[in-house]
């Protein structure tokens, strides 16, 4: 897997602290936010929610897919009990 650096150098009071990278993975979003996105996509479209939230289509799709797979796992574990 290749990684892409999309960050920038972070300076505090003029001192270079290191490289800052914005969150690239869906796991960096709070669970409530992901569930909110998931519910809204079911009523609208990924493109519309992306415009409203300022996220790309791929970010919205990643969040939706992640929450969907978590719900499937939770439902499957309930069936096994």
Keyword list:
disordered N terminus; 81 residues; 14% strand; two-stranded antiparallel sheet; 3 helices; 2 strands; alpha+beta
What does the secondary structure layout of this molecule look like, with pairings?
Elements: E1 8-12, E2 15-20, H1 31-43, H2 46-53, H3 57-79
Antiparallel strand pairs: 1-2
Helix pairs in contact: 1-3, 2-3
Describe this protein's structure:
This protein has 81 residues and is α+β, with helices and mostly antiparallel strands. The protein has one domain. It has 3 helices and 2 strands; from the N terminus they run ββααα. The chain has helices at 31-43, 46-53, 57-79; strands at 8-12, 15-20. A two-stranded antiparallel ribbon has the order 1-2. The chain starts with 7 loop residues before the first strand and ends with a helix. Residues 1-10 and 20-24 have low confidence and may be disordered.
Helix content: 40-55%
Number of separate domains: 1
- Side by side, the strands of the main sheet go 1-2
Counted by DSSP, the helix tally is: 3
Note the gap between the termini.
Answer: 37 Å
- Main sheet overview: 2 strands, antiparallel
**Cα shape:** elongated
Low-pLDDT residue intervals, each spanning 5 or more residues: 1-10, 20-24
- Provide the succession of SSEs: EEHHH
Mean residue pLDDT: 75
Global structural class: alpha+beta
The count of strands amounts to: 2
Strand content: 5-15%
Q: What integer value in Å does the Rg equal?
A: 17 Å
């Amino acid at each position: 897997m290749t990684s892409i650096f999309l960050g920038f150098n972070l300076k505090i009071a003029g001192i270079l602290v290191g490289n800052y990278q914005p969150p690239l993975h869906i796991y960096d979003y709070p669970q409530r936010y992901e569930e909110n996105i998931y519910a809204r996509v079911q009523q609208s479209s990924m493109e519309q929610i992306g415009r409203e939230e300022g996220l790309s289509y791929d970010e919205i799709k990643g969040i939706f897919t992640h929450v969907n797979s978590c719900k499937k796992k939770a439902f499957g574990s309930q069936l096994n009990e």
